[in-house]
Amino acid sequence: MAFKELVGHEHSFVDNVIHVNSSQGERLAGWVTKLRRELNTAAVCRRYAISDGTLERWLLSRARGFPQPSLRGRRRFWLESDLDAFDAAVAGSCVPAVV
């Protein structure tokens, strides 16, 4: 579906910010790079194979460097990109054992 059909007219502010990807013939928003995926508490526990209690200890121990969640009401959410950065930092700080 063409952009004009979605917006209803040919020129708009949004039309100025959107560029054409000529290889695919699609219109993509120029400022969107990656979707921000959020994980709730249960998903984070599954990702690290830990219990709720362990997650609580990780959050209380700020020295560990585990990312703090954003709160919405009583629910907690972590950005997947923050968790990926934490994983990379932990993997980079591991020193192989000398045998």
The biggest sheet, with number of strands, parallel, antiparallel or mixed sense and barrel status, is:
3 strands, antiparallel
Query: Unreliable stretches, pLDDT < 50, 5 or more residues?
Result: 1-25
* Total number of strands: 5
pLDDT averaged residue by residue: 74
In DSSP terms, counting alpha (H) and pi (I) runs of 4 or more, how many helices? 5
The best one-word shape is: globular
- In what range is the share of β-strand residues? 15-25%
Please tell me the total number of domains. 2
Distance between the termini: 62 Å
The class by helix and strand makeup works out as alpha+beta
Briefly characterize the structure.
The chain folds into 2 domains: about 1-35, no CATH class; about 40-95. It is about 40% helix and about 20% strand. It has 5 helices and 5 strands; from the N terminus they run ααβββααββα.
Can you walk me through this structure?
This protein has 99 residues and is of the alpha+beta class. It folds into 2 domains: 1-33, no CATH class; 38-93. 41% of the residues lie in helices and 19% in strands. Strands 3-5-4 form a 3-stranded antiparallel beta sheet. A two-stranded antiparallel ribbon has the order 1-2. A hairpin with a 4-residue loop joins strand 1 (18-21) and strand 2. The termini are far apart. Residues 1-25 have low confidence and may be disordered.
